Structures are given as structure tokens and as C-alpha cells.
């Protein structure tokens, strides 16, 4: 990040006055297609798409050097099953059944990749049909495996990725995934975890995307308040079942070709269908641009839990703590872990600034494209959100006595550094 971009971004967030970025708004009407890597900078992406929180598609030129595009695909542009079997055949992978609805998702099972590819071959030979149903390999954490070398190169546009930086520090999880499946596999209507951004690259095959900007999903709720499972279902035409449907704008539709990369903004609900035999690489990520969105989402999640168990509030000892436990079970994170997430990222940025790292240098062995301007911007965003966290009544109910650094102390450190970096 250069200084001009940082000044632009900080002015943008001051104008929001603490509101989540990219909130309720009209559809942009179209999705931009970015053709050439040599004429599209990090600042172009940051100002044009990340801050305004709108989708875009990058051409296949941005991924042409990836190992997966060379090795995982046949000359005919199909999945290279034989290579995948040799390289990963004995790896256990998660597989969802697209033909079965379990709440608003699909049930999953674990199987060896060689067994899934065997199923996939049979599915193709059976005319895109199988007595086992329509199975979709989803959320395979290949990137945590040493076998993942030379699969892809992280695009610089997505390199400020706090979510995976945090989990890599803990060395227990990540939000980097491989998806693969035959034509007809799909992902139901949803918004990404924690209201994260995501990016998705088709290694081969094509996908059809349906995008709805934040707020539009409210008009898609049924008469019971539930969101649809499938936005292409004829049931949505039933005005008694979906009384607000007429107030929803048509979705933005994108057909993603092989090699192309889709940027999914924070809080945009979407649904995705594989039009061909398809393999894709997908990351979820959070940074200073959507951190407030994540915090807003977590507050909503806690409120939903509290409302669900409100009848036990007066009789259950430690009711507030139980709500945090339930929230973590349902959402994958609670207020305490969110603070530790902020703390780890903050400490790494403070260390980077203390070292005086120059623009464009890479921090230790991470794929984190961070200079001092980016680090200073990150500190300002963490400070704003942390101030809101510290002031939240439910956070104040947590026992923070065993925290290695008290939240108020961390906030003070961040605010002091913001003063010293103001003229950076």
C-alpha cells in the first residue's frame, strides 16, 4: 500500500463513522472484468473494489502460471484424474451430497480422494447421474498439506489476509479450500463465514454465480423469516410464501470461465452452480476493510443466541457465559476469541512498524504483502473496532484477568502508534 491509498482509505472510514463498510445499497448493475495484470495495481483493486465492497472478475491471465492449472488439467481442459490420483489419491476429503438438504446446506461425509474420483468417473459415464446422488467435494484443506506445493501463487490483491494469518499463527486451521465436482454440483444460497471476503479461481470448468448485495437478501425471506435454500427455485414466485420477493432486485449473474478469478465482497449473499466438471481454489479472508463487518456480524450472532435462550436468563447461572459458548459452537468464534484474533494481528503490525520494514517487503515467511503504510492502516482499523469491543457490555462481562495483555492496554498501545505514524 502506498501513502496516497492509505490516506484515501482512512478518509473513507472516517466518513463511515463506525458503520460497517459496504452496507445496504443498490446493485452496481454489472460485474467488472479485469483483463490485464500489468495495468491493474493493488491500489486500483483497493480503491475500486475492496473499499466500495463490490465484486469483480479477473481474467485467466492472472493465474496462468499456477501449478494446478498446469498439472491438474488435461489438454482438453478437463480434470486430470490420473494426476490427482497419483498425487492425492490416499488423502481423506470432505464430500457433500447436493441432493440432500440439511437445514440450509448439505450433509457431508469423509472419503478417500480415489474413491471420490471413482464415483466422479461413474457419474460422467452414467450421463451425469448416480444412485449415490450428486456428490461435491467441498472445503478440502489441501493448503495445510505439504503436498500442496506449487498449487497456486497468492494474488497480491488478496494478500492482506488476517483470517488465515491468525489461524496459521495458531497452526490449527485455515480458510483455504479446494472444491471439485461434476456438472450439476452446487452451493446453496449463503453469505460467507464471519462476513469475510472470498476469492475463487476455476482451475478448470465453469461456474454460474448469482450475487445479491447486502440487504437485498431481506426481501428474499419467506413468511416465516427464513432465507431461501435455492434462489432459482420456482417456489420464490409464490407471493404468499415469499411476500417481499417483488422488492428484491434481480441478481447479478456471472459465468466464470476456466482460469478466471472471482472476488466476492463482504456480506454479499450468493449461490454457485458448476456448469462443467470443475475444480476451484477458494479462500475466505478478513482485513481492515471488512473488520467492522465481522464485528457487526458477531454482535448479531450473540444477540440471536441470547434471544433463543432468553427464557433461562434468570435461572441459569453464568447465562452470559453459556451464550458465548453456544455462539462459538454455532459460529466458530465468540467475543473472547475475536479479541485474541485482534490482538495477534495487532501485535504483528506493531512489530512490523517497530522494525521499520520498508514498502513492499515480505514479513518473515508469510505470503503477507505488507509495507509500513499497510501496517499503519491496519493499526487504525484494529483500534477503531477494538474500542467498540471494549465498550460492549457483553465483552465487559468476560473474565479477562488471565489475558496476557489487557484489552485496554492494547488499545492504548494502538492509539499511541497511530499518533506516531500519522505523518508516515
UniProtKB/TrEMBL annotation:
It holds the Pfam family Cupin_8. One of its GO terms (molecular function) is metal ion binding. One of its GO terms (cellular component) is nucleus. Gene3D superfamilies: Cupin. One of its GO terms (biological process) is positive regulation of translational termination. Residues 143-302 form the JmjC domain. It catalyses: L-lysyl-[protein] + 2-oxoglutarate + O2 = 4-hydroxy-L-lysyl-[protein] + succinate + CO2. Keywords: Iron, Metal-binding, Oxidoreductase. It comes from the Eukaryota. Its cofactor is Fe(2+). Belongs to the JMJD6 family. This is 2-oxoglutarate and iron-dependent oxygenase JMJD4.
Amino acid at each position: 500500500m502506498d501513502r496516497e491509498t492509505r490516506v484515501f482509505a482512512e478518509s473513507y472510514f472516517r466518513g463511515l463513522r463506525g458503520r460497517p463498510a459496504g452496507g445496504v445499497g443498490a446493485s452496481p448493475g454489472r460485474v467488472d472484468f479485469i483483463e490485464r495484470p500489468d495495468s491493474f495495481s493493488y491500489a486500483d483493486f483497493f480503491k475500486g473494489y475492496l473499499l466500495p465492497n463490490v465484486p469483480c472478475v479477473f481474467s485467466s491471465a492472472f493465474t496462468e502460471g499456477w501449478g494446478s492449472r498446469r498439472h491438474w488439467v488435461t489438454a482438453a481442459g478437463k480434470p486430470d484424474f490420473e494426476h490427482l490420483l497419483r498425487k492425492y489419491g490416499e488423502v481423506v476429503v470432505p464430500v457433500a451430497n447436493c441432493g440432500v438438504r440439511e437445514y440450509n446446506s448439505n450433509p457431508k461425509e469423509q472419503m478417500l480422494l480415489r474413491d471420490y474420483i471413482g464415483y466422479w468417473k461413474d457419474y460422467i459415464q452414467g450421463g451425469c447421474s448416480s444412485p449415490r446422488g450428486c456428490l461435491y467435494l467441498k472445503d478440502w484443506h489441501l493448503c495445510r498439506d505439504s503436498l500442496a506445493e506449487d498449487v497456486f501463487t497468492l494474488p497480491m490483491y488478496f494478500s492482506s489476509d488476517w483470517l488465515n494469518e491468525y489461524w496459521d499463527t495458531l497452526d490449527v486451521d485455515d480458510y483455504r479450500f479446494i472444491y471439485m465436482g461434476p456438472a450439476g454440483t452446487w452451493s446453496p444460497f449463503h453469505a460467507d463465514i464471519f462476513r469475510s471476503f472470498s476469492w475463487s479461481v476455476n482451475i478448470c470448468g465453469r461456474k454460474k454465480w448469482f450475487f445479491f448485495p447486502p440487504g437485498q437478501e431481506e426481501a428474499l425471506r419467506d413468511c416465516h423469516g427464513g432465507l431461501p435454500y435455492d434462489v432459482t427455485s420456482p417456489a420464490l414466485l409464490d407471493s404468499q410464501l415469499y411476500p417481499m420477493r417483488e422488492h428484491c432486485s434481480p441478481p447479478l449473474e456471472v459465468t466464470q470461465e476456466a482460469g478466471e478469478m472471482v472476488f466476492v465482497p463482504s456480506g454479499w449473499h450468493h449461490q454457485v452452480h458448476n456448469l462443467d466438471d470443475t475444480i476451484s481454489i477458494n479462500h475466505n479472508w478478513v482485513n481492515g476493510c471488512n473488520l467492522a463487518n465481522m464485528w457487526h456480524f458477531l454482535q448479531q450472532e450473540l444477540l440471536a443466541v441470547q434471544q433463543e435462550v432468553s427464557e433461562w436468563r434468570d435461572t441459569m447461572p453464568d447465562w452470559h457465559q453459556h451464550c458465548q459458548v453456544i455462539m462459538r459452537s454455532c459460529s466458530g468464534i465468540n467475543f473472547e476469541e475475536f479479541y485474541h484474533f485482534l490482538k495477534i494481528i495487532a501485535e504483528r503490525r506493531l512489530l512490523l512498524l517497530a522494525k521499520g520494514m520498508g514498502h513492499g517487503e515480505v514479513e518473515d515467511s508469510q505470503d503477507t504483502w505488507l509495507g509500513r503504510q499497510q501496517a499503519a492502516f491496519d493499526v487504525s482499523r484494529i483500534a477503531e473496532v477494538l474500542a467498540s469491543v471494549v465498550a460492549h457490555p457483553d465483552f465487559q462481562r468476560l473474565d479477562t484477568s488471565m489475558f496476557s495483555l489487557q484489552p485496554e492496554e492494547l488499545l492504548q498501545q494502538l492509539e499511541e502508534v497511530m499518533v506516531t505514524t500519522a505523518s508516515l
